[in-house]
Amino acid sequence: MEKKRAFSAKAQAKTKETKLVQQIKTRVSATGPMTVAEYMKEICMNPMSGYYMHRDVIGSSGVITSPEISQLYGDVIAEWCLKEWIKAGKPKPWYIVEIGPNRGALSDELLRVFSQNNDAREVVSLHLVEVSPHLSQLQELKLCGTVSVVKDVLEADDSRRHLHLHTNQDNDELMYKHNITKHGVPVSWYRSIEDVPQGFSCIIAYELFDAFPIHKLQRLKNKTNEGWREVLIDLDDGQGEHHLRYVLSRGPTPASQFFIDADETRTSLEVSPESGVLVQEIAARIEKEGGYSLLIDYGHDGTKTDTFRAFRSHALHDPLSEPGTADLTADVDFSYLKKMVKGKALTYGPITQQDFLTNMNIKSRFEKILASAKPELHKDLIASYDMLLGPEHLGKI
C-alpha cells in the first residue's frame, strides 16, 4: 500500500515587532489604514521611538553627507553664499538660516570661511531650525564646543516629566537655545522657520526635503475603475513577511483629489505637501525681507515615480521592516517645489551637485590642495573628491 505524504503549511516568521510596530498596529486597528505620509511622520518623529529623535543618524550609524567628507565642500558653498551676499550689496544684518542642520558640519564650515571675511564677520549670525533635542545638542557641541544645560521640568498640571530646552527668559523671542560659536558668531535654535527673526537671509536646506512625508498615489485604469487612488499602510495578519503591508484606498482620498495636476502623465506619483508649504514660507520670507536660498537634495525634475525607500547602516532596507530602525526617504520632486513658488520667487535648476561644484571651480581648489599635501595623503584626498563629484556617489545629488 503506497504511503501518502502529508504537507503542512508553516507560517513564515515575521520581522521583529518593534515598539513602533505595536503603536502603529493599535492606531490602525482603531482608525484604519494610514497614509505613507502619516507612517513617515510616526517613524521619524515619534517622541519616544522616532528615528531622528534620540540618536545620531549621521555618519557611521546613518548616512554620509558631503560636508562630512571634505572641507572643500564647505569652502565652495561658503564662497557661493558670500558672492550672492556681495551681489545684493552686503545688507546688514546677514542671517544664515539652516533648516535641519544634521550635526552642524556645513554650518561650521560656512562660519569658518565667513569669519575670515572682515565685512561678513561683523554682520553675520547663524539661525538653526531643528526639532530634535538630541541633534540640537550635537550641533551645539560641533559649533560651540559646549552644550547648554537641559532642564527636566515638572509641569504643575501633570504628573509626568517633560523635557524643556533652555529658553531665553528675558524676552519673548522664540529661540529655545542660544550660544556663541567657536568662530565668534552668535547662533540660535528654533523649532520653525517662522520663529527666526526677519532680515536678509541666506536659507540653506541640505538633504532635508528627502525626509519629508510623502503621499504615494497610483493611477487606476481598468474596466471598472479609472482615476487615482492612494497607497496606504495596513496591518498584515496573514503570511506576509512583515506586520504591515501596502494597500490601495477603496476610493479617492484628499491627496488623490487635490494634489494631482490635470495634465499629469505619470502612472504613479509621490507628493509632499509639507515640502510645498515650507518652500512657500521660504519664498515669502525672501520676498518680504530679501535673500536667497540653496536646496541640496537627492531628487528629480518631475520624471521619477516610485522612490520611497529606507536605509539602515548604509544599505537599502524595506520601509515596512522593523520601523524605527531605518531612515525613510523619497527623492525630492523639484518640479513640484518650483510650482509651489511660481510667481513668488525666481528659481534656477535643479542641477547636479557635480555640475554645481564644477561651475564653482572646485577642481582648481582640489589641485592646489593635492599639490601641497603629503604623498601619503593623496589617495584619501582623491577618494574624497571622487565621492563628492562622482555620478555613482554624491555627484548625482
N- to C-terminal distance: 69 Å
Helix content bin: 25-40%
**Strand line-up in the sheet with most strands:** 6-7-3-2-8-13
| Low-pLDDT residue spans | 1-9, 150-172
Major sheet summary line: 6 strands, mixed
GO molecular function: protein-arginine omega-N symmetric methyltransferase activity
Subcellular location: Mitochondrion
Family: Belongs to the NDUFAF7 family.
EC number: 2.1.1.320
Sequence-ordered SSE layout with sheet pairings:
Layout: H1 19-31, E1 34-35, H2 36-45, H3 66-69, H4 71-87, E2 94-99, H5 105-114, H6 118-123, E3 124-129, H7 133-144, E4 151-154, E5 161-164, E6 177-180, E7 186-190, E8 201-206, E9 215-221, E10 226-235, E11 244-248, H8 254-258, E12 268-271, H9 273-289, E13 291-296, E14 299-300, E15 309-312, E16 315-317, E17 327-329, E18 332-333, H10 334-340, H11 353-359, H12 362-372, H13 378-389
Parallel strand pairs: 2-3, 2-8, 3-7, 8-13, 14-18
Antiparallel strand pairs: 1-10, 4-5, 6-7, 9-10, 9-12, 10-11, 15-16, 15-17
Helix pairs in contact: 4-5
